[in-house]
Specification:
Number of helices: 11
Largest sheet: 5 strands, mixed
Order of helices and strands: EEEEEEHHHHHHHEEEHEHEHEEH
Strand content: 15-25%
Strand order of the largest sheet: 11-10-9-12-13
Radius of gyration: 24 Å
Helix content: 40-55%
């Protein structure tokens, strides 16, 4: 059985085996990560593309299996030899930390080692992506790391990928809307002209806030980290609300009653809008938001001057701008 991966989903194809030999022919628009299952215990991963690939498999010993092919296959094998061992070491440390108890001295002693390995993992993955911009393996690695690196670096890596080869790759298609949105609304860009409805049904546009510093806050009533961050947002609002500053909440809620209830319960006394389309919220997609809470700070001229600052960083920047 061959399974072609589509970002957490798979497309399976059963292939008959005759006298220990099988063959499969087809054409792929882009390279895909794939798995060959011999039985329940032997699964061999490789990069499926328009190349001659030869797999020698042992149904009793996965480690005795080999995969040889063209450039896409060779690049995936290089990943398996250079980056996957790091993945496995990190996974083992996370398990050890979990088994010891998150707050135990032993678990805390593992943090520095984990951080070092994760930094090495990100560095090697980034270097691989830059080395092989046409590789399906690069899109897979980018999908894994783009939320963990600084956005300017992520944009640089994404822009370097060869779209002519990778456009149909499922990992590329998954990250593209976020990266294009992030690139079009990066620091220095003009905020897009978009509007949605307030809880009482009135239309409010991003353009309505020209002349003020405005913090666009992407959140939702169901988002636990958002709700935990709200007291800090309230504190910032109360400190600067009389100094040419305001906040616009953009909710990724689906249920209007839950949205309104959270606004009232958390004391979010500023303007709010939403289209109640969950992760398909049009404004959040335009800004390339793929996790919440997320914030964008816009100056009085409608220019984006910061994204996703921590509370202390945001407070310092606003103090500099509003108390010159």
């Amino acid at each position: 059985k061959i399974a072609k991966e589509h970002v957490k989903q798979s497309e399976e194809m059963e292939i008959p085996v005759k006298q220990g030999v099988f063959s499969y022919e087809g054409k792929a628009a882009s390279p895909y990560q794939a798995y060959l299952s011999i039985n329940d215990s032997v699964m061999i991963s490789f990069m499926l593309y328009n190349e001659n690939i030869r797999i020698t498999a042992d149904a009793k010993n996965k480690n005795a299996s080999t995969v040889k092919g063209g450039p896409q296959c060779d690049q995936y094998n290089e990943y398996l030899q250079t980056i996957q061992p790091l993945d496995q070491e990190i996974g083992a440390l996370w398990k050890k930390k979990h088994d010891a108890g998150e707050d135990s001295p032993e678990a805390k002693a593992l943090d520095a080692k984990l951080k070092s390995l994760q930094d090495e993992q990100l560095a090697k993955s980034s270097a691989f992506i830059q080395k092989y911009p046409q590789s399906g393996t690069s899109t897979y690695l980018f999908w894994r790391i783009y939320g963990r690196i600084e956005m300017p670096k992520a944009i640089e890596l994404f822009d370097g990928l060869d779209k002519t080869v990778l456009a149909d790759n499922s990992y590329y298609k998954f990250v593209a809307p976020t990266m294009i949105g992030q690139k079009n609304t990066a620091v220095g860009c003009k905020v897009p002209s978009m509007a949605q409805e307030t809880p009482d049904g009135k239309t409010l546009s991003l353009d309505d806030f020209r002349g003020k510093y405005v913090l666009i806050d992407f959140w939702a009533s169901w988002c636990v980290p958002c709700r935990a961050a709200n007291p800090g947002i309230v504190e910032i609002y109360n400190k600067f609300k009389d100094k040419n500053f305001t906040i616009l909440g953009i909710s990724l809620d689906k249920a209007k009653d839950k949205w309104i209830e959270a606004i009232e319960k958390d004391g979010l006394n500023w303007n709010h809008i939403s289209d109640l389309k969950f992760w398909d919220n049009e404004i959040s997609r335009t800004f390339g938001v793929n996790s919440i809470p997320a914030t964008v700070l816009v100056d009085p001229n409608g220019i984006i001057i910061a994204r996703n600052l921590h509370k202390e960083e945001l407070e310092q920047l606003l103090s500099e701008k509003l108390y010159p």
